[in-house]
Amino acid sequence: MTSPTLLIDIKNLSHVFQGPEHQEIKALASVNVAIRPGEFVVILGANGSGKSTLAKHLNALLLPSEGTVLIDGLDTIDDQALWSIRQRVGMVFQNPDNQIVATIVEDDVAFGPENLGLPPAVIRERVEEALTMVGMSEYRHHAPHLLSGGQKQRVAIAGIVAMRPKVVVLDEATAMLDPQGRREVMTAIETLRSEGMTVILITHHMSEAVMADRIILLGAGHVIAEGTPKEVFQAREQMQALGLDIPQITQLATLLKEDGWIEHDDILSVEEMVKRLCPSF
Amino acid sequence: MNMLKGVTIGQYYPADSMIHKMDARFKIIMILLYVIALFTAAGPISYILMILFAIFVIISAKIPYRLILRGLRPILWIVGFTLILHTFSTQEGTMIWQWSRFSIYNGGIIRGVMMGLRLILLISITSLLTLTTTPIDLTDGLEALLKPFKKIGLPAHELAMMMTIALRFVPTLIEEADKIIKAQTARGADFEEGGLIARGKSMLPILVPLFISAFRRADDLAMAMEARCYRGGEHRTKMKELKSGFRDYLGLASLTLLFLLMAFFRFAQIDSWQALL
Amino acid sequence: MSIILKDVNLTYSPGTPFSADALIDVNLEIESNQIVAVIGHTGSGKSTLVQVMAGLQKPSSGEVLMDDFVMYKKNTDRKKLRRKVGMAFQYPEHQLFEETVERELSFGLVKQGRSSKEIQEQIHKAMHFSKLTDDMLIRSPFELSGGQMRRLAIASVIAMEPDYLILDEPTAGLDPAGRDEILDGLQAWQEETKKTVILVSHSMEDVAKLADQILVLANGRLLMSGSTAEIFSRSSELQQVGLDVPQMTALMLALREKGWDVPEYAMNVEEAFHAIRMVLRRTRS
Questions:
Q1: How many domains are contained in chain C?
Q2: Which sequence spans correspond to the domains of chain B?
Q3: How far is CA C229 from CA B106, C37, C225, C253, in A?
Q4: How confident is the model at residue B6 (pLDDT cuts 50, 70, 90)?
Q5: If you placed Cys at C272, which of A223, B58, B69, C248 could pair as Cys (CB 3.0 to 4.6 Å)?
Q6: How far is B12 from B127, CA to CA, in rounded Å?
Q7: B169-179: per-residue pLDDT in tens?
Q8: What ipTM, to 2 d.p.?
Q9: Contacts of A among chains (3+ CB pairs under 8 A)
C-alpha cells in the first residue's frame, strides 16, 4: 500500500465534552485540516480556541465526537493502530518538567525507543543522534532538574526525535519559557526542518508564527482562516477580535499604509520595514 | 534548599572501580546476604571478618572515607545510646563495677559493642550501595530481582517505574515547596507560632498547593508517557542492560568465602562471645 | 519613601562546592509612586533581587531599607514588614489553596489582623481588580479558568494593600488577551493608589509600555538604572548582555543607521509612526 499524499487528513472534526455544570461544550466544530509531508504549519489561536484540543487528536489522546482523523492513512478510532499512530506523531508538551521521566537526560531520551522494544544498541545510536540534533550531547549524564526550561524542552524534543516520527507536534512548547529558551526551541525546530521533518507548532506567539509555511487560525473551535503568514495577518480586526497579537511592526505598517506612505502593509519584520522605507539603499 | 539542587538523591559518587562496574542485581543480593550474616554472627572473630570485608569493599570502591563517615554521623548518637543501654541493663558474664542500683557486667559491654558495630556496618555497607550504583541501575536491578514474583501478582515493573519517577521528581518538588513556602510567607503565613494544632493547620497553605501540583504533574506525565508509546512493562527493552560478568561472580565468591570462614570458626567453637568472657 | 539597597551581596551555599554568587555589590534606590521593571538575561539574579526586596531572602551582606525600615535585623517586626511589601511569585495561581474565593482573598488580611469590615472592603476591591463577579465568592478557586486564577492570586496580594507590590513575571504563560488584562489592571491600580509596583519581565514591549524606571541586571550585578527612554537608548549594551530592545526601538535604530533623523527610542507604535511620518513629510515634500 502506497503512503497517502496527506500525512494528516482531518475531515469534519468536532469535539464535544461535558463542562463543569454538565453542559455540552463544543471545543471543535467541523474542522478540516490537511498536512503534507515536510510542511511547517502553525496552529494559531488564543486560549479557548480549541488549539490544544485539536493537537490531542493528532496522536489519538482524544477521539472525535464527529468526523475522522487519519494519520498516515491510519484512523485514530482504530484501537489496533493506536501505537503506530503515536510512533508516527511525536508530541512535545507545554510543561518542561512534566514530560521528563528519568533521572538522567540520556535515559529519558531512551524512554521512547525502549517503549518501542528496540534493541539496546539501536537505542544507544538513536539517543546519541537525537541529543546531537538538539545540541544537548554534553548534558547526557545530567540530572533534569538542574537544566533550564529551554534545555528541558530540547531534551523532550530529543526524546521524540529518537522515536523517528513522521511529524513532530509542539503543543505550546514555548509558553512557559523565557526568550532565551524560546530561541533554543525555535533553533531546534529549524534543525528538524532542515532534516525534512514535518512540524506542527501550536502557539499564540506571533514571532513564532511568522516562520511558518502555513498558518491555521482557530477561533472558538472553528478554522477562521488559513494561508501564508502574510495572508493571515491581513485580517487585523479578526486577529484582534480573537484575542491575538499582531506584531507591532505590522501594526505600524497598517498606520503607514492608511496614511498613504506605503502601498502594502504585509510587513512582518524590522528588516522588511527598513527595506520598504528605504528602497534606494 | 539550594544545596539540594547539587546533590542527587541516592548520593551517587562516580568513580572507576570494580564495585561501580558490578551488576546491580548482584550488589543488592550481596548486601542482603551480608546483612543476614551480620545478624547471625556468632562472636568476635565473625565481627572482625565482617569488618575486614567491609574495609576491603570500601577500598576497592575507591570511595573516600569521609563520605562513609559522613553517612555515619546521623546514627552516631544511636550507637552511643545503644552502647550505654546494653552496658547498664545486661547482666551476663562477670560483674566488673557496681554503684548502688547500677551495675555493669562485661557481658553488657560486649553486647553494647556488638550492637553498635552492627549498626555501623549496616549503614556503611548500604551507603556503599547507593554510592556506587546509579539510581536507574538500582531500580533496574530491583525490577529484575522482583520479576520472578510477577507470577504471584507483584507488579515489579510498575514498582520500579514508580521509584524512578519518584527519584526524578523529589528535587523538583522540593524546589516547588520552597517557592510555595516563600509565597505564603509573603502573604503573612507564619509556620512557627501557636501550639501543635495551630501549626498543623498552618501547613495547609503549603500542603494543599503541593498536592494539587503533584496530581497535575502526574496527569501531565501520564499523558506524555502514553504519547511516547508507554504501555507498561511488556515488550519493553532497556538501553542499559544489566550484564553480569566475572566481577560479579568474583564478588559472590569472596562473600561465600567469608561465610565459610565464619561458619568454620563458629562450629569449631572457637568463635563465640562466651569464649571471650 | 523608597527602597534602598546598600552593598548587597548574596551567595548561595557559601563554602560548599555548589556555591553560587547570585547578587554582587548591588546598590540601588527605588522611589515611590512609579512602576519599576527589572530586566536581565536568564540567571542574572532578577528573581533573587526582588525576593531580597520583598523581605523573603536574606542577603549574605549589605543593607536593605524600606522607607527607613531596616529589613533582616534580628528583631525586625515581621508583621510590619508584611504590611509594607507584598509579592506575587511566578505562576501565582499555583499557590491557591483555600476552599472558596472569599477565603483565599481574606487569607492575608486575616493574618494582618484587620477588622471584618476592612476585610469586606478589601475583598470587594480585589474582586473588582480580578474582574470576577460576586457570585464567584463562594466558589472554589480551582473552578476558575487559568486566567481568572492568575488574577485572583495577584488580587489576594493586592488586597493586603502593600506600599510596594512586587511581581515576578506576572504575565508568564498567558496569551495576549490575558497579558493585557493583567498589565492594564496593574497600571490602573498604580495610578489610583500611587503606590510602587516592581515587576520582573522578559517582554521588552511590556516594559516599554508600563515602566517609569528600569533596573538592568547582568551576572548578578546592577548594570544600569534609569528611565525607560534612557535604558532603551543603550541598545548595544543591552544586546551585549543578552537582552533585546522593544521592536519599535529596534526599528528606530535601524533607520538611524540608514541616516534617518528619528529618535533613538520609541515607546510604542504611535510614537514610531509619528517619528517616521515627520521624516517622510520632509523628504517627500
A1: 2
A2: 9-133+245-276, 155-227
A3: 85, 13, 11, 13
A4: very low
A5: C248
A6: 9
A7: 988 999 999 99
A8: 0.91
A9: B, C
